[in-house]
Design goal:
This protein is an alpha/beta fold. 34% of the residues lie in helices and 15% in strands. The strands form six sheets. Strands 6-5-7-1-8-13-4-14 form an eight-stranded mixed beta sheet, sandwiched between helices. A two-stranded antiparallel ribbon has the order 2-3. Strand 15 and strand 16 form a beta hairpin.
């Protein structure tokens, strides 16, 4: 980041008036008023937190995004890709010609045998279009007419952190801005009472998964840090350092913040460091969140029918079900990007027991969020994305004869995700895997392609949302990515 360059971009109005003719100055005033939501043209969102000038690039289909991230990699073989031939080939070897097309992790790359393990539970057809899903996902089946199931995802990553980092930031190496940071940087936010980008994490009830959620999954990278995700915790203070110091009244705190803001503004004028601007806005945001966050987290006034829809676990703080309900409350309050990170899908040795429990934890609340948004009229312009970093192998890992001693390894050459709302085609299955659910046979979708398509639905041309850093224009999709017309209306 170049602070001098950032300073030029943030020239004060006085400097602007001094350097420009009156006609240009009037245009600048109109632009500034538009950013503040005071002179926005008809049909354009009024922003409390301004985005970039010229965005959106075209009329968006969606205004907000919620990512239901299933950390550890859900098994597409067991949940989403119906392939009856696998049962016929039970315990037969996956052909070398199939396995040779992809890279395996070190946990199974040296196995001597690769016997086929069919889905552990039957599949059923759901919805008007007869979408095939595992019987372990009955609630997802109930919203099958709303979701676009992509069965042709593929990625180069075969380990968890690089896989998550690639999808969230466009690189397997940490340090770049996350998707939520890019979206809020480009589009701004309609609320000043809550962060534009919020994150919540949860873990399976058995706490079987050791995968960690790193802060850079929702970080701002080289973008100003005001665009990083703000994490809401399930235990203790929901947001760290939000409360006033002991013995400080509300009026005294307001006076302190005003004085600090004045000092910071003087420093910003002198040095032009964008991180000083971030500090100013974050102080103000924290002050407002002291009121907005308790109201957000109080679900006692939610109708019983809504609580029942999310399931009994909604009453447990920090649960995935509770976070799904809070995600809806954040979205309806104007938050631009919500990211739920749930761990527990890494079934290397406990597939026969843990997969069903994990589905029980997540299936009902995931579907409830979609239905809740729909009945409130929010689904049409909200993107709901569900999925993990990659899939699982068709062959068995471990000893199939022993319970809790076998499962599936990581697989990046073919896996599934689903997306609903925001102009995506509901009731659609996209992409064709091979007969072993091991490789993509047709209509492959890389994380870069899905990133490009999500940005497109937000009104962003992914090649034009860039940020210059260390002499290069970076973007979320790096130098890759293509729109996937087949999954959008």
């Amino acid at each position: 980041m170049n602070p001098l360059f950032e300073n030029d971009l943030r020239a004060s109005r006085r400097e602007l008036f001094g350097k420009t003719a009156s006609g240009i100055g009037i245009a600048a005033i109109a632009s500034l008023l538009e950013q503040e939501g005071m002179a926005a043209p008809p049909g354009k969102e009024k922003l409390a937190i301004p985005g970039l000038q010229g965005l959106p690039h075209f009329a968006p289909k969606a205004k907000r995004v919620v990512v239901l991230w299933q950390g550890g990699a859900p098994s597409h073989v067991d949940l989403f890709q119906h392939q009856p031939l696998l049962e016929q080939r039970r315990m037969q070897q996956v052909p070398d010609s199939i396995r040779s097309k992809g890279r395996l992790s070190t946990m199974t790359a040296g196995q001597k045998n690769y016997p086929v393990l069919p889905p552990i539970k039957p599949f059923k057809q759901y919805g008007k279009n007869g979408m095939w899903l595992s019987e372990m996902l009955p609630y997802t089946g109930g919203i099958s007419d709303e979701i676009c199931l992509i069965n042709s995802m593929h990625t180069e990553a075969v380990n968890h952190a690089p896989g998550v980092t690639l999808f969230m930031t466009g690189s397997q190496i940490p340090g770049r801005p996350s998707m939520g940071a890019w979206a809020t940087y480009g589009l701004g936010c309609v609320t000043s009472e809550l962060p534009a980008f919020c994150v919540m994490t949860s873990m399976d009830t058995g706490k079987t998964c050791g995968q960690l959620f790193y802060d850079y999954y929702w970080g701002s990278g080289f973008l100003p840090s005001r665009y990083q995700g703000v994490r809401f915790r399930g235990e203790g203070d929901p947001v760290l350092y939000l409360a006033d110091p002991s013995g400080t009244s509300r009026s005294l705190r307001r006076g302190q913040l005003d004085d600090i803001s004045e000092l910071n503004h003087r420093r910003l004028t002198e040095f032009g460091d964008p991180e000083i601007e971030t500090r100013i806005t974050q102080y103000e945001m924290a002050y407002k969140m002291q009121t907005s966050v308790p109201d957000l987290l109080d679900i006692s006034k939610e109708p019983k029918s809504i609580l029942d829809m999310y399931g009994p676990d909604v009453q447990r703080k920090g649960s995935f079900a509770r976070n799904c309900l809070l995600a809806r409350r954040l979205l309806e309050r104007g938050v631009r990007f919500v990211q739920l990170m749930h761990a527990g899908w890494d079934q290397h040795g406990n597939l026969d027991t843990q997969l069903a429990l994990q589905c029980k934890d997540t299936d009902q609340p995931s579907a409830a969020l979609v239905m809740d948004l729909k009945q409130r009229g929010l689904l049409d312009d909200t993107i709901v994305l569900w999925g993990g970093e990659f899939g699982r192998t068709t062959f068995v890992q471990g000893d199939i004869t022993k319970p809790n001693a076998h499962g599936r390894d990581h697989l990046g050459t073919c896996y599934s995700m689903w997306v609903a709302g925001g102009g995506f085609k509901g009731g659609t299955v996209y992409g064709k895997p091979d007969e072993y659910c091991y490789n993509v046979e047709a209509d492959g979708v890389h994380p870069y392609d899905l990133q490009a398509t999500i940005l497109h639905q937000l009104g962003i041309e992914h090649t034009k949302l860039t940020y210059r850093y260390q002499g290069r224009d970076f973007r979320l999709t790096d130098v890759h990515g293509a729109l996937v017309p087949g999954i959008i209306s």
